[in-house]
Write a structure and sequence with these properties.
This protein is of the alpha+beta class and 842 residues long. The protein is 55% helix and 17% strand. Keywords: Cell membrane, Membrane, Transmembrane, Transmembrane helix. InterPro entries: ABC3_permease_C, Membrane_comp_ABC_pdt.
Length: 842
């Protein structure tokens, strides 16, 4: 019965409109919209990957081998289950264009294909022509196609010639797009596409050199992909075969999008937490304005339950409206911007309304709204009628009854549980929640400290009326210090943390790494070329250091007889192929942490030295056995030692180093790093390329640029998320300023009566805003520095240094935001007439 009465009262009160709830609605809608938009974009990309899985992969399924071609038995099995099998070869090489003034060279990612390519999808060329016609060349030389970025870099036009290894090609067309572009992983150079058979005399493809082969399968209609995958893994798992199919045509991209989307949703939740501060303040202010109504209801005998239910229903109805607005905004913005987003995405996306992300955002919004409004609603229930007539919510106990505290705790726990379940990153969710809670607690303490310091600093401000007035307003009980510092501070904390993390990663890559990194990596050096290569670089006075090592690639398939993925818990070392080297003696720069190196000339059972840090993560011990598949051959070796391997120097580092006899007869190449003066690099690359056309030079700076491009995209996405959080905080700030407008009008009237000029009053308002912004920015900076240090140290495992330009920008931004919000609501107080205001207060 009480709910019916409460509903009737609530419905009548809501006839008064949404006055006082605009900030409530804006905060809730913006937080929900951010989460819904991120979820919609993520779902659109996932739908695109699923729909275009076969095109992304280049076939219904793919079998991939590392640095070798499929053997007869493997190829026969693929041909028995597929209607067609297309072979492609992927590797890096140097594209060389002869010029009268000297050859032009650029690193390129080569895709060598057969006549069946592509099984699925189509290649688009400029000028438009069939791929077979492009490969036909000019009648004397075979043809090839290149991506435009590479032709621009080489100043190469269709009809001109270029060289790969020892083979010359004529450029037939520009490669605009090809169907399996998104599934190829990280490439260091633009793409060149030629026919495999035309590379027969190039010297680039032979066992031991660095290349991958992919066999795309065109399967019969209705083929059971899961069953085929199981059979392929059963038959060829220990032979180094890796399987993918159209169910996940680009699994790396899908996982990356999923992880990034989950992270951005957690950033969105921090924005929802900021909005929650504004929601709570709006509810408190609304209830304070309902003093007479609540007092009248209590006087007429309304029980506490009716009071609570009345305003619970009102706030609930407005929360539903805010969530609905947020869902509409979050769903419509990605759809409206779909052409722009699709143009910038290198992968397909199907933009539509997806119920999953919208339901997730609605759940977050509902739980957050309930958690942040329950407390002020419960306090209103506790206040006595006599107290309500005097002061809205200042009476009664500070804490609500225990059942409301428990309910609030359950709501927060449910919100965290939902975030953990949806993001599938429990640890990250809990750390994010802990960071938000810690930042809110720190900001609340800072607001309290600011009020205390303001009250105690009044004497120090003698002779400075504007400053003294500002300090008095900050220190006043019930002022806006808490709401300003909380709302702005949390948004700035998120932005400060992201700025510090991003700055440290960029600094680590662009500043620290080049100081110790080699100038170039040279790969695919054949055993017969290594002596000549060393003679050229080691006798160059501009070269300070040369490191060389034989290199093979292998896949760890078993650990102590168990499947490697199972024994290592899915560690990254067993996910894919790893570099393997051999050495007769312990390298001079190597440092053993446990065990012993094999004796010189050892030819007993295979032994291996394993990277110490990775071994500890996997749980390996001396004497354990690991099976490594190298070029289709299983080698089971006993772990004889552990050694330190530092990958941060960008030098040569191998997880696995074996005794030479264990790899005797295995085709392999050499890898070398050359540390040289910048002015000598071009001559070294030119001489090596002319002497050994098959050798590929990879400039470390180019690799760093590719990583920086990837980081720029991630950083931009996180900054957009943080910007949404900051915008929510600014809305809360506006709400706090609007709520304090009445008190400022009264304050201005009193000051005018005492002779204060408008300029002095405006100065006190501005100083108040600047000081509160400084407090919020200072605390946010401390929280951001602490958060950045934690992520850099424990997650990224990199050195950390405060990025002071980003830090100062946060403080200045906080001061500017509070000043803008404060001055926005300073015009009416300055224009108020003292007589009218003071007479109304009598």
């Amino acid at each position: 019965m009480s709910w019916q009465v409460s509903a009737r009262i609530a419905r009548r009160e809501l006839r008064g409109g949404l006055r006082g709830f605009r900030i409530f609605l804006a905060c809730l809608a913006l937080g929900v919209a951010a989460i819904a938009a991120v979820g919609t974009v993520r779902a659109s990309i996932q739908a695109g990957l699923e729909r275009e899985g076969a095109a992304l992969l280049g076939g219904d399924a793919e079998a991939q081998f590392t640095y070798r071609f499929a053997r007869e038995a493997e190829l026969a099995w693929m041909e028995s289950v597929a209607e067609a099998v297309s072979e492609t070869v992927d590797f890096r090489s140097m594209a060389v264009v002869p010029r009268a003034e000297g050859a032009e060279r650029a690193l390129t990612q080569v895709k060598a294909v057969d006549d069946l390519y592509p099984l699925v999808g189509a290649v688009r060329l400029d000028p438009d022509m069939p791929l077979a016609e492009a490969f036909a060349g000019d009648g004397t030389l075979p043809g090839g196609v290149m991506q435009r970025t590479l032709t621009d870099r080489l100043a190469l036009s269709p009809g001109e010639t270029f060289r790969l290894g020892d083979q010359e090609f004529v450029l037939s067309a520009i490669l605009d797009s090809y169907p399996d572009n998104s599934g190829g992983g990280f490439g260091l150079g633009p793409r060149t596409m030629v026919r495999t058979e035309d590379l027969a005399g190039s010297g680039l493809i032979q066992e031991g050199t660095l290349f991958d082969t992919q066999y795309r399968l065109d399967l019969p209609e209705g083929a059971d992909l899961a069953a085929l995958e199981a059979e392929a893994r059963r038959l060829w798992r220990d032979a180094g075969l890796r399987w993918r199919d159209a169910r996940a045509g680009a699994p790396g991209i899908a996982e990356f999008v999923d992880r990034l989307g989950a992270f951005l949703i957690l950033v969105g939740l921090s924005g929802l937490a900021v909005g929650g501060v504004g929601v709570s303040a709006a509810v408190r202010a609304y209830l304070a304005g309902k003093t007479e109504v609540i007092a009248t209801l209590k006087t007429l005998g309304a029980p506490r339950a009716v009071i609570f239910q009345t305003y619970f229903l009102q706030i609930g109805a407005l929360a539903v409206l805010g969530i609905a607005l947020g869902l509409a905004l979050g769903a419509s913005v990605p759809l409206l911007l779909a052409p722009v987003i699709e143009a910038r995405l290198p992968i397909p996306a199907v933009f539509a309304l997806y119920p999953g992300p919208l339901l997730e955002a609605a759940l977050y919004g509902t739980l957050a709204a309930a958690a942040f409004t329950l407390w002020p609603l419960a306090r209103a229930e506790e206040v006595r009628a006599a107290t309500l007539f005097r002061d809205a919510l200042s009476g009664g106990s500070t804490l609500p009854r225990a059942r409301y505290l428990v309910a609030t705790g359950l709501l927060v726990a449910t919100l965290l549980g939902a975030a953990s379940a949806f993001s599938r990153t429990v640890e990250l969710t809990l750390w994010t929640a802990g960071g938000i809670a810690g930042a809110l607690a720190l900001l609340a303490l800072a607001a309290g400290l600011a009020r205390v310091l303001a009250r105690r600093s009044g004497r120090a401000a003698r002779g400075r009326p504007a400053l003294r007035l500002a300090l008095g307003a900050i220190g006043a009980r019930g002022g806006e210090a808490t709401s300003v510092v909380l709302s702005l501070g949390l948004g700035l904390s998120v932005l400060a943390g992201i700025g510090q993390i991003d700055g440290n990663i960029r600094q680590s890559i662009t500043t620290d790494l080049p100081a110790v990194a080699p100038s170039y990596f040279f790969v695919d050096i054949q055993p017969g070329q290594i002596d000549g290569f060393r003679e050229r670089v080691e006798t160059d006075p501009a070269v300070s250091r040369v490191d060389s090592a034989p290199m093979l690639r292998g896949i760890i398939t078993r650990i102590n007889g168990l499947p490697a993925m199972e024994a290592a818990g899915g560690h990254w070392v067993v996910q894919g192929d790893r570099g393997v080297t051999y050495s007769e003696t312990l390298p001079a720069e190597a440092e053993l942490t446990a065990g012993e190196w094999w004796p010189e000339g050892y030819d007993g059972p295979p032994l291996v030295s394993f990277a110490a840090e990775e071994a500890a993560e996997i749980g390996l011990s001396l004497g354990d056995e690991i099976t490594v598949n190298i070029l289709g051959r299983d080698i089971t070796a006993t772990i004889a030692s552990f050694r330190e391997v530092d990958f941060e120097t960008a030098g040569i580092g191998f997880i696995l180093s074996m005794n030479p006899a264990a790899l005797a007869g295995a085709p392999h190449s050499w890898i070398s790093t050359v540390y040289a003066e910048r002015t000598a690099e071009a001559a070294i690359v030119r001489d090596i390329a002319e002497a050994y056309p098959n050798v590929t030079a990879i400039r470390v700076g180019d690799a760093i640029e590719r990583v920086m491009e990837l980081l720029a995209g991630i950083s931009a996405a996180t900054r957009y998320g943080a910007a949404a959080t900051l915008l929510t905080g600014f809305l809360v700030l506006i709400g706090a300023a609007a709520a304090g407008e009445r008190s400022r009008i009264y304050e201005s009237a009193v000051l005018k009566t005492l002779g204060a000029s408008r300029g002095r009053i405006l100065g006190s308002f501005a100083l108040r805003s600047l000081l509160l912004g400084l407090a919020a920015g200072g605390v946010a900076l401390a929280a951001g520095i602490a958060g950045g240090w934690a992520v850099s140290t424990f997650v990224m495992e990199t050195d950390y240094a405060v990025i002071w330009p980003n830090a100062l920008a946060i403080i200045l931004g906080g001061m500017a935001a509070t000043l803008a919000a404060g001055l926005m609501f300073a015009l009416r107080p300055l224009a108020a007439r003292p007589a009218r205001v003071l007479r109304a207060r009598e």
